[in-house]
Amino acid sequence: MAFKFSIGQAVEYKPKGQSIGLFKVVRHMPEEDHAMAPKYLIKSLREGFERIVHEFELEPSVGDESKYGNAATPRSTR
After folding, report:
1. 18 in Cβ contact with 31 (< 8 Å)
2. I need a surface site. Which of 15, 39, 44, 54 has the fewest CB within 10 A?
3. pLDDT tens track of the chain, all 78 residues?
4. From the CA atom positions of the chain, what is the Rg in Å?
5. How far is CA 28 from CA 21, 63, 66, 75, in A?
6. Nearest alpha carbon to residue 64 among 26, 24, 25, 22
7. CA dihedral in degrees (63, 21, 43, 73; nearest 10)?
8. For the whole model, what pTM was predicted?
9. CA 58 centroid distance within chain
């Protein structure tokens, strides 16, 4: 399976209920039988966790980090 994005590449991802955020590709996930699309492990510097997403959910980053504002800032738990 060919991957569109490289490890370390900056990508845009829109978490549900949030604005588009800047993330980095951490790794390519193993191929699964009957998978819809390749999967990636991504991470934002503003979050304390990683996400697994499908390739079709990502777009290449087209600007610097300031363009994204606080899009990937974790929500308050209060």
Report:
1. no
2. 54
3. 689 999 999 999 998 888 889 999 999 999 887 778 999 999 998 888 999 999 999 999 986 666 665 444 444 444
4. 13
5. 19, 23, 26, 27
6. 22
7. 130
8. 0.77
9. 6
